[in-house]
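Summary of Year 1 activities. Much of the first year was spent building the evaluation harness for sequence design. The harness presents a backbone, in tokenized form, and records the residue chosen at every position. We chose the following record to illustrate the format because it has been used consistently in internal testing since the harness was completed.
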């Protein structure tokens, strides 16, 4: 496999405009999160020292990782939030606007181009994110992890899923296993980490499914069922994630 270079976007600001050149593998419906649509596209430009990119020998982006800093502690921020991914992104931008002192960072995304999967690059990007956060004087990085095999068992509660382990004691889920091997501790479930709501027409466009029956709809790539209401012409997906904590000292 070609030699790769991994840097922060602060070190190579010309890559900020190329952050979306990495082939996207997220399910289409994930683009419907309102908080992400309002703020996430700004992260690379606003927090380049907390974001990393891998490029091949030709300079083509093949992987990215993004994180944000925020202030943790004080009223309303005593615990990692149940509305994990959405909430920490809002906290980061609130703090950026107010100039609050940041003391924690949260990883938000690691994306690997399909051609580079199963080659250990996810470990390298995670390590690069840890190093980038530590370089800013922050000693703890958390992450609302989206377990990449949970969609195979959508009816299993996340609280039960995170207890599944292999004979060696490591998590059965591959992406949780990457974090634990890197030194992370699983903290708790973020039961409403992302909320994606839309009309039935939007859900049909995202998924190609009919969405013509009330109740749970199993959507490929979704970690839990999507709740459909034909009477009210909407469906809602509430995604649980898993909070993990990386000590960077």
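For this record, the design step produced the sequence shown next.
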């Amino acid at each position: 496999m070609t030699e790769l270079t991994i840097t922060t976007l602060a070190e190579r600001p010309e890559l900020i405009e190329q952050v979306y050149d990495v082939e996207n593998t997220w399910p289409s419906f994930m683009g419907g999160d309102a908080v992400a649509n309002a703020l996430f596209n700004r992260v690379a430009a606003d927090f380049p020292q907390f974001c990393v990119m891998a490029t091949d020998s030709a300079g083509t982006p093949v992987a990215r990782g993004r994180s944000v800093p925020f202030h943790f502690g004080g009223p309303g921020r005593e615990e990692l939030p149940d509305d994990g991914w959405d909430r920490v992104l809002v906290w980061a931008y609130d703090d950026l606007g107010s100039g609050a002192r940041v003391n924690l960072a949260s990883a938000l995304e690691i994306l690997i181009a399909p051609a580079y999967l199963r080659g250990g690059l996810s470990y390298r990007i995670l390590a690069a994110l840890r190093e980038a956060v530590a370089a800013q004087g922050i000693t703890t990085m958390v992450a609302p992890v989206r377990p990449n095999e949970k969609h195979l068992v959508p009816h299993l509660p996340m609280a039960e899923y995170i207890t599944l382990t292999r004979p060696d004691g490591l998590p059965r889920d591959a992406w949780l296993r990457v974090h634990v091997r890197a030194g992370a501790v699983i903290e708790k479930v973020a039961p409403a980490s992302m909320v994606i709501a839309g009309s039935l027409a939007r859900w049909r466009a995202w998924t190609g499914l009919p969405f013509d029956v009330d109740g749970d709809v199993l959507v490929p790539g979704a970690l839990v069922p999507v709740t459909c209401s034909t009477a009210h012409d909407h469906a809602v997906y509430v995604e649980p994630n898993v909070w993990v904590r990386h000590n960077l000292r």
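The chain has one domain: 5-247. Quantitative recovery figures across the full test set are reported in Table 2.
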